[in-house]
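Person: I have long wanted to understand how a fold can be written as tokens. Underneath my words sits a plain record pairing an amino acid chain with its backbone structure tokens. Those tokens are not coordinates but codes from a learned vocabulary of shapes. I should like you to check that the lines agree and flag anything odd. The protein I mean follows directly.
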Amino acid sequence: MQVARILLRGFLTVAMAASAMAPAGATTLIREGLDQLVAGNATIVLGEVLDVSSRWNDEGTFILTDVRIAPQEVFKGKIEDPELTITIMGGTVGDRTKLIVGGAELVPGSAYVLFLNQEDLPGAKSVRTVRDHVQGAFDLVLAKDGGVRVVSQANRHPLLPDAKGLVEPPGGAQGIPLDTLRQSIRDLVKNPQGTRREVK
């Protein structure tokens, strides 16, 4: 299975990148449910990160990172090209690093489910990005039963409670079976005003 091969290939790279990162401040995020993530983003895709490239914005005041992705499955929206590029805040250029605490962490060779939208970033107008930071990025992990689960990166970042008092991201620390997430997203896309049941 292609997803499983990507997971195994990217495991060591992810572990090395995670160990190299250190917090540099505080970011406040209010917990979002799956229904909010689906409604608030135009594109939802499962894809493998091919490479990342950091750069200064046009004004030279902020570092941005362009992430090239090979989509494997599109859950919402339309992507006709074999690759897409998204832009996220932060990165390293030379000896300068801008770390966005609470920002999505995307590593080449790894696969993710990403919730994407067109947004304005510092010095970059209307770019496709992970608007909801860690809440819009789900890691793919191999489950003990051999299946694939998706785990929100928000598990690594404290969230403020939503209107229902919930603080745990969709799926919690154990994540959600990929097939369950896929169906839940498709149901919410087809019937956004229908009964909203929290994905466990």
Notes: The beta strands are 43-56, 63-76, 84-89, 91-93, 96-98, 111-121, 124-129, 137-142, 148-152, 176-177. Confidence is low (pLDDT under 50) at residues 10-25.
